[in-house]
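Support request, please re-run this one:
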Amino acid sequence: MPKRTWSEETAKDRIKARIADVKTVTIKDYVRTMSLEAIPTGVAYRVDGVHLYIDILNIDDMLNITAVEGETCHKRTLRFLNQHYRAVRDILQDVEAIEVDFHNQRLHAVFAKPYDDETARIHKAVATAQLIRDVLKKTGDDGSDPLPAAKTRVGIDSGKALAVNNGRRSSREPLFLGNPANQAAKRAGGEAEGIFMTNTARKVVGWDEVLDVDATALTAAQIEESEDAADLPVTVDEVVEQWEEDLADHPIGAFSFSRHTPPFRTIDLQVLTPGNSRRQEGTSIYGDIDNFTKYVTARVDNDDDAKNVVKTLHVLRSELDSVLFDDFAGKKVRFIGDCIHGIVVEGTSQTTDDDETAKNALLCAAAMRSSFNLAMTEMKAEGIDAGDLGLAVGLEHGIMSVTRLGMKGERVRCCISRSVLASEDEQRRCNGRQTAMGPELYDHAPAAFQTLFDESRRRSDFDYAAANDALNPKPESQKSAGTGASLLRPATSAAAAAGFTFNKAAAQPSRNVGGFS
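Re-run finished. Output below.
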């Protein structure tokens, strides 16, 4: 059982093993005969394609439909996401696009076909984006408790990216690294609805460049031009009819929640379904590799340089996952590009120990930074060009729901709540040396960490040594503080002695904190 501590020696041994995993790396150019499923660890495909990101803008509205973040708003939000995921999945299959990831409210897809025709690929992506937007406006109302239409923003870019294996153990799928994926994601990040495309992609199809790509959506005429050029094999009405038949044959079913006995390390995400979902307080952690897109873009065209990208990503992500899972008994929900999303909880089958969860989550974040820095040092010692990368970490505490959406045999993991969205926002306000926490986590954090982070709730260079120094001050500081007790100790709980079980009682928060219930 993990003791919620970090050891430099243990981390160094893991990192060396991960470096050995990718001693030999092969870079291949993607061709029509290749499959991107189950890409081996030491292989990457260079793919020339169009990247499309779709962000559902009103997910916050769904989560805040009630003043208290109770079961009602979580059930409605999950039903909302589930319906839209199933509709979008059908569309991507119909147009032969590659579904890369569906992370809560955000979709990433890639168009590699038609091969050797970038203009046609871009028109196809634009037409598909509009088809998805039109369909999602019609898939909200499914009965007595109608859901709102999805408000969407789309980002599109085109170019070369590296496709690698995204994950370990049971979560393997393709991941695309490079500037077009990043630029498409950035264009999707905004408040206004519409389809937003980079000047790089606009130039390919012969459209004028614009001064502000984030404020200039494609016009109706441009979208119509793409629809005519792409001539997609399905229409809005056909997709909606197919979606309705799919729902009738394979109903979503009611969402039902129970608690998971801490820690989250023991939760089996593969068995979760709408009727077998988890809901309880916990801390959400986002760790994003800063400067990674620039690092990849400078190396994607050269095989030797690209090999270093594959090695660096494998070592860094594997070690971040190990810190979360092995050292602090947390659970990786998924890798999102060069970012890891994880969850941590301490307590019993009936209640969450909010203070202990907050402390160990922050220690986990500190250990992630120490392991990250150690991995960068070890890779450079091995002659791996790891560039000038950093780690931005964001955390927030609150009630969260964990489940899987979609149909049996092809479900996707989902962890959603106000605190999950807030933890990602906290990560976004950090540079590669910073860690930030949300206000709820700050309230439960040890006083030493509150002082260290101050009212900004953000700190540079918060590694394991800094955390240890804060929790275990030197004798002079101890005298002035009036205590010599150490807070940096292994977590304990009744759950550890009792074993790990699933409580089938309806999940409720342990107590009313900050409006959560």
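Residues 261 and 499 are 9 Å apart (CA to CA). The first strand starts at residue 26 and ends at 29.
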